[in-house]
Amino acid sequence: ILNVEQSPQSLHVQEGDSTNFTCSFPSSNFYALHWYRWETAKSPEALFVMTLNGDEKKKGRISATLNTKEGYSYLYIKGSQPEDSATYLCASPGTSGTYKYIFGTGTRLKVLA
Amino acid sequence: DVKVTQSSRYLVKRTGEKVFLECVQDMDHENMFWYRQDPGLGLRLIYFSYDVKMKEKGDIPEGYSVSREKKERFSLILESASTNQTSMYLCASNLGQGNSPLHFGNGTRLTVT
Predict the structure, then answer these.
(1) Which residues of B touch A42 (CB under 8 A)?
(2) How far apart are CA A10 and CA B39, in angstroms?
(3) CA-CA distance, A86 to A106, in Å (whole number)?
(4) How does pLDDT run across B18-56, given as a tens digit for each residue?
(5) How far is CA A14 from CA A60, A95, B82, in A?
(6) How many whole angstroms separate alpha carbon B6 and alpha carbon B103?
(7) Quick one: which of B19, B10, B104 has its CA closest to A91?
(8) Which one of A36, A107, B3, B14 has the fewest beta carbons within 10 angstroms of its own beta carbon?
(9) pLDDT of B53-84, one tens digit each?
């Protein structure tokens, strides 16, 4: 079974702080790594899908990096704002890109004004 | 934008009732998924469908069945609801491959009393 782990479980930061969290996944037979943001009372929203080792993707103040050889991805938020408060999920499809996405338990971020 | 719509936001049912959760997507996606979210656990796959009338069991299919008679609609059926099926249920869809982002509905919070 493919295990995807996220740390920390939860995080409180002050408005304006930059922060980052980690997603770890088995490095063998890597296919892709997904990041989602899940705000309260909304649906999870895709942030990034990453496939290439060394890849870095950016969306506004949020960016992500990928290391497939060592099996981790970092999500960075620069200058956190209260609207960034959400649970951030990462997920990896099974080997060869099968449908059995394995989700981490998420990092719950609270940005304090 | 892809829209995935779940028929109910909140649902309260009694033990033993048959429960239908409906999901509709409007972007002609091949794949549709049903997940449940419980505290401290990642999203867990209940069932997956990759085409009309085609389905595959996920990690926790016991006590559930599904129906996909039309490409846009994927229904989750709780044959005889039990209290341990109290959970948040999320429907999702995507195009064929594991590097295609999942698009989620808003979720249905089901309480079985």
Answers:
(1) 106
(2) 13
(3) 10
(4) 999 999 999 999 999 999 999 888 899 999 999 998 999
(5) 19, 39, 42
(6) 12
(7) B104
(8) B14
(9) 899 999 999 999 999 999 999 999 999 999 99
Amino acid found at A90? C
Pairing mode, if any, of strands A102-103 and A5-7? unpaired
Task: Show Cβ contacts of residue A41 under 8 Å, excluding neighbours closer than 6 positions.
Answer: B106
Question: Among residues B62, B81, B77, B67, which one has the least CA distance to residue B32?
Answer: B67
Return the residue of A nearest to B102 by Cα: A46
Tokens of B45: 């796959």
Out of B50, B98, B105, the one facing A97 most closely (by C-beta) is B98
Tokens of A28: 């063998």
